[in-house]
Design brief:
It comes from Enterococcus florum. It is found in: Cell membrane. The chain crosses the membrane at residues 12-35, 67-88, 100-124, 262-281. GO terms for molecular function: phosphate transmembrane transporter activity. It is a multi-pass membrane protein. It is a single chain. The protein is mostly helical and 295 residues long. It has one domain: MetI-like fold. It is built from twelve helices and no strands. The protein has helices at 2-37, 43-47, 60-91, 96-109, 113-127, 134-158, 162-170, 175-186, 188-203, 207-210, 243-253, 259-294. α3 packs antiparallel against α9 (188-203) and α11 (243-253) runs antiparallel to α12. The longest helix is centred in the N-terminal third of the chain and has 36 residues, at 2-37. The chain is globular.
Length: 295
């Protein structure tokens, strides 16, 4: 008995040491990026366009492209993921077809982002003729985002107790009405948390967008709101270098005299955005869960 207790204490201590080491490494990396980059971040840096072969450039267009591309991607991927999650949770039978679907989702979630980017380049950029554009990038990121979001929605729906479904059916609601009016609203805290977490993952993606959304950030005319014009900020047919791609481009091409400071500042902004997505997901999920339980 004493040996078992001693072994348990040793194993627990080892786990605590490993966990603490991982947290320290992560904290060091985050602090290094923030300390190195935050001094270069200002309102002018966040709003001014980037410059090549001269100093003083910012990340205004790249930051806008990242946000707009995230919006378009979620607009495409969320309805598909919601439908797939509802089907797998509420309607799919446990047979070989469902097994193939789940296996396909697992395989798709394990693909490297560069493979998704190359697939998007061959299919959306070349085969469909969309070229390097926000649309091509959003479709590629949809493939990248679907497994995570679908699995999150399915698990959120499955977490709702079966008595909720029985209560809806007992009140005379159809199965579809029970799902849409009772199950999905009750699962909304978990679904919203998954949306925000997947948004953070999309916001920081670079490899898939290099081959689909392009590596240039043309000047935008914010007085032109024609979605068919390539100079319009809301056009999905224009090239859109995102913040993560911009960081990669700065460090590989070396066309900026102050590339180190711009890269450091852009990295700090990217880290802060991803942290806000993650902490925001936890905070919003907890608040919604409290409201649902108190109601």
């Amino acid at each position: 008995m004493d040996k078992a207790k001693r072994a348990d204490k040793i194993a627990t201590g080892v786990l605590y040491v490993v966990s603490g080491l991982i947290v320290c490494i992560l904290a060091f990396l985050l602090l290094y990026i923030l300390i190195r980059g935050l001094p270069h971040v200002s309102l002018d840096f966040l709003t001014s366009p980037s410059k090549a072969y001269q100093t003083g450039g910012g990340i205004g267009i790249q930051l806008f492209n990242s946000i707009f591309l995230l919006f378009v991607t979620m607009l495409i991927s969320f309805p598909i993921s919601l439908g797939a999650g509802i089907y797998l949770s509420e309607y799919a039978r446990d047979n070989w077809v469902t097994g193939i679907i789940r296996t396909s989702i697992e395989i798709l979630s394990s693909l490297p982002s560069v493979v998704v980017g190359l697939f998007g380049f061959l299919v959306f950029v070349i085969q469909f003729g969309y070229g390097f554009s926000i649309l091509s990038g959003a479709l590629a990121l949809t493939l990248f985002n679907l497994p995570l979001l679908t699995r999150n929605i399915e698990e959120s729906l499955r977490a709702i107790h079966y008595t909720q479904r029985e209560a809806g059916l007992a009140l005379g609601l159809s199965r579809w009405e029970t799902v849409t009016k009772i199950v999905v609203p009750d699962a909304s805290p978990g679904i919203l948390t998954g949306i925000i977490l997947s948004s953070g993952r999309i916001f920081g993606e670079a490899a898939a967008l290099i081959y689909t959304a392009g590596q240039s950030a043309p000047a935008l005319d914010f007085s032109n709101w024609n979605p068919l014009s390539v100079s319009s900020p809301i056009s999905i047919f224009r090239q859109a270098e995102t913040l993560a791609v911009h960081i990669w481009k700065i460090n590989t091409e070396g066309t900026m005299p102050d590339g180190d400071s711009v890269s450091a500042g852009a990295s700090a902004v990217l880290i802060i955005a991803v942290l806000l997505f993650n902490f925001g997901a936890r905070a919003i999920g907890k608040r919604l869960h409290k409201k649902m339980t108190s109601a």
